[in-house]
Amino acid sequence: MSDNLLSLKHVSKEYSGNKVLKDINIELKKGEIHALIGENGAGKSTLMNILFGMPVIHTTGGYEGTIEIEGKEANIKSPHDAMANGIGMVHQEFMLIPGFTIAENIKLNREITKANPLSSIFGKRLRTLDVKKMNEDARKALDTLDMNIDEFLPVAGLPVGHMQFIEIAREIDKTGLKILVFDEPTAVLTEAEAKNLLKAIKKLSQQGIGIIFISHRLDEIIDVADRVTVLRDGEHVVTKDVKDTNKYEIAQLMVGRKIEIEREEGINKNIVDETILKLNDFVVAMPGERVKGIDLEVKKGEILGIGGLAGQGKLGIANGLMGIFPAKGEVEFKGEKLPLNNPKAAIKSGLAFVSEDRKGIGLLLDVAIEDNITFSAMQINDDFLNFIGPIKLKDSAKIRNHANKMIKDLDIRCTSSMQEVGRLSGGNQQKVCLARALTLNPTLLLVSEPTRGIDIGAKKLVIDLLKQLNNEYGMTIIMTSSELAELRSICDRIAIVCEGKIEGILPPDAPDAQFGLMMSGSSNSEGSDA
Amino acid sequence: MNNINTSERLKTTKASTWLADNIVTLIFVAFTLFGFFVSDGVTVNFFLTELSSRFFRNAFLVLSLIIPVVAGLGLNFGIVVGAMAGQIAIAIVRFFELGGVSGLLLTMFLALPIAGLFGYFTGNLYNKTRGQEMIASLIVGFFANGIYQFLFLVVVGVIIKVPANHPMIKPDGVGVRMSVDLVSYEDGGLKYALDKIWEIPFMWAILILFAFILLLQVWKILRNKKNPVLYRYNKTTTLLYIILSVVMIGISIYAISTNSTLMMVRKVPVITSILIAALCLFNELILKTKLGQDFRSVGQSQHIAEVSGINVDQTRIIATIMSTIFASWGQIMYLQNMGTLNTYGAHTQIGMFSVAALLVGGASTQKAGVKHAIIGTLLFNSMFIMSPEIGLSLFGNALLGEYFRTFMVYGVIGLALGLHVWRTNKSNEITLD
Q1: Is A119 an 8 Å CB contact of chain B?
Q2: Of A240, A257, A274, which residue constitutes the final position of a domain?
Q3: Taking the model in full, what pTM does it have?
Q4: What is the rounded CA–CA span in Å between residue A117 and residue A172?
């Protein structure tokens, strides 16, 4: 047991009855680089939050199982405990204060101080900072990483690659660092910076530090890790030596579902060979979901799925088309140029959007169902209005009739059309969103994460509804979803987005591994023939 | 590892925001100069006398606002609560008819725990109203005013038995009078107890001040010679300071030696100046300590500070307590100079006025320093002196100038907050690159 730096034993965690981690066992040896891989929601972040003693874990009832560090059980209740146990973490978003110098950031809350007359009366916190010693220490840590940047300069304005290294330098500078966790460290780096980082990680592991490396980039894992653990839906799938496996296998393990995908073939699909929407070098600045120049063609009458991991930009496409976030590029819709950054024009031209942010921009929660359903149509198309001179009045009767029809058609469970939307369940709220989109009579329906946060029964209803719209009314649908299984059950083609670009377009019955590789951005190299 | 040229990185200061950063200050400079042009009744002597007495009255209060800004709490309108603590201490000391230097020290000593407690409560409130601290501080001032009035109007007399014939108690024996004479220090009171300990002529003070500034600039240059990268300084501003210092030293020496009319300007209270200088120094030195570093960390990012293990809530409470205590002392210094305690009115405006003064000095809700406080106090009070004069000479009515004062105070706060929001929005804007 003694060679295990860290062992997680039977670790489980549930958030309000929902098991997000089930019986995880991971061992980390001295000097080992242990990769952790899994889709979104597989439980990587939760696991790391447990390891780092984040308050989220302990305010929601703690976790089950034990964490042992060097054979001894450790009780990690706060980030401070984690640090005391020699666990360091390089966060995905940088924990750097821009206005501080590099040295100040490295020494954040671990400043070296010296006594002064006031501190002997009022206590430690009034001790003077020893800037010189702090700079020296910072210098030492930076030197370990071969960084020859001046430690007394402010962090603001540094390239991201440098910031990442400053984060690492901070962890190295902590005395007794044994375990270092990297959470998607290369996600924001350029290729050259990423290479440098991987080199540094290897160097650190040679000094005997155990490293947990979370990444979705399979190539990097193969390149740098000794062992890899795959998580899926909160379960520990497998831990393997990297030399005994290949990225094809890892990808398959990451995506593979036990449940068979049920898919009935479209009864009377009539996908015309006519392009309805054409994107050319489309760029969207959606924070956290940047789209970095994609080309995409959507055929009339098809359901196009857009999949990929979170943060890769799949959600940005629909939001950019609808003008919710700044976008540029060439978009041709129904043969005409679609004006960008103009939500009104987008809706007018025949696009309708069911947003992934249902409660934020999808619905007016305190307003009645009927008003929610007809709201956009009133604003954009002047439907449901009576005109008396220059004054526009709501046509309540027409609204009520339409709402009731929608409630019946979509089977929205509610007491009446006057009920507040906020009182409905997630599934029924989603149906209201759909009803509102349909009220606009769109030619192309954009649906983002339609089943997020709704229960299984409602999920099926929503999916069936989309299928029905497509089959019976020939409506073209672009469906964006994190749930690959869902996409594969109804889409005709599935585009996988990775790092802001379309990695590839697959038929729904392509093998698991191919999806996994594409989501990790390593589809164009060998391995897909295995 | 590829490295960026150090000197190139240091060049990234933007000149384009200079006007926006200093617009408030510029308006006030222009206003004061305009006042000199249009009104002929204002002599330099009158102006300087007024300005210096107002400066020594208010500077301490304005300085008490700096620490909360550094700690990310924004502009602490809640110093009103500190002022109340100071007034409670003054009332107690006045009631027992103590005074003089020892009485003043006792007042400050008494104010310390009261203000500390008030600061602790307001600090907790700010932690509960995270993100809305400024509004909370404004409202807490109004709320505390209610309790204060209850204390002074009802509790004194009903619960705390006081003799009805005491000069500060209302004739019916319940409540404190509207205005309480603090009794001149010569008669054993608090009036001028601090100011009159030691006074020197105005021009001597100018001489000492600018000699000090000159030395400071020389020290800066020498330090820069030793390590040019670590200790940077702005060449043009340093040069300006040196020129200004030399000119002012020349003028003061000339005035002293020829005993010109400038020597007639009211004398400067030395101990008050020293206390103000001490608070300036404290505000600077505290930033060099662990606590100060925590203030800055918390001020820049509460989240990062929290993750790094800094006790964010506690740090913010400490900042509030400090600010409240300094405000209580500032109010005591203010009142000993005024000579009368306007029991129900003296504290009500100081929050607004002090904040406005700090903003006029070029501070913002996120950045404030000693320099801003000093310049701000001078400019803001110049406006106060000039506005009735402008009203009189332009409209033949000094009262119009009074209205203008109010307009300027609230206008400045509004403008500064508006600029702040505008800038934050601009930096948060999502752009394609």
Answers
A1: yes
A2: A257
A3: 0.81
A4: 33
* Overall number of domains in chain A: 4
The parent domain of residue A270 ranges over 266-350+444-522
Contacts of B284 in chain A (CB under 8 A): none
Tell me what pLDDT residue A259 has: 47
Euclidean distance between CA atoms A98 and A387, whole angstroms: 56
Q: What's the pLDDT score for residue A514? A: 86
Q: Please determine, for residue A528, whether its predicted confidence score (pLDDT) is greater than 90.
A: no
* Residue A267 pLDDT greater than 60, yes or no: no
Q: What is the DSSP string of B128-196?
A: HTTT-HHHHHHHHHHHHHHHHHHIIIIIHHHTB---TTSTTB-TTSSSB-SEEE--BGGGTSSBTTTGG
Residue B302 parent element (H or E): helix B302-307
Quickly tell me which residue has 């996908």 as its tokens. Answer: A271
A143 CA: distance to closest CA in chain B (Å): 10
Same domain (yes/no): A293, A403: no
Instruction: Quick: pLDDT tens for A180-194.
Output: 998 888 777 777 788
Q: Which two tokens stand for residue A529?
A: 């023939």
What confidence tier does A530 reach under pLDDT thresholds 50, 70, 90? very low
Q: B290 to chain A: which residues are within 8 Å by CB?
A: 111, 113, 124-127, 129
Regarding whether A100 and A62 lie in a shared domain, the answer is: no
- Separation between Cα atoms, residue B75 and residue B416, nearest integer Å: 11
The distance of Cα B367 from the centroid of its chain, to the nearest Å, equals 14
Report if residue A90 sits inside a domain.
no
Interface contact flag, A145 B308, Cβ < 8 Å: no
Residue bearing the bigger pLDDT, B18 or A264: B18
Write the CATH number of the domain with boundaries B2-201+265-432.
Answer: 1.10.3470
Interface of A with B in 500-529 (CB under 8 A): none
Q: Which two tokens stand for residue B144?
A: 């505390």
**Alpha carbons A23 and A241: distance in angstroms, whole number:** 20
Domain membership of residue A395 (yes or no) is: yes
A392-449 pLDDT, tens digit each: 898 999 999 999 999 998 888 888 889 999 888 888 888 899 999 999 989 999 999 8
Identify which of B1, B12, B290 has the shortest CB distance to residue A111.
B290
Dump the DSSP string for A282-349. Answer: EEE--TTS-EEEEEEEEETT-EEEEE--TTSSHHHHHHHHTTSS-EEEEEEETTEEPPSS-HHHHHHT
- Domain end (from A415, A441, A467): A441
- CATH code, domain with A328: 3.40.50.300
Write the pLDDT tens digit of every residue in A273-308: 788 999 999 999 888 888 989 999 999 889 999 988
Q: Which residues does chain B have with pLDDT short of 50? A: 1-13
* Out of B4, B290, B307, closest to residue A79 by CB: B307
| Token couple for A355 | 């947003």
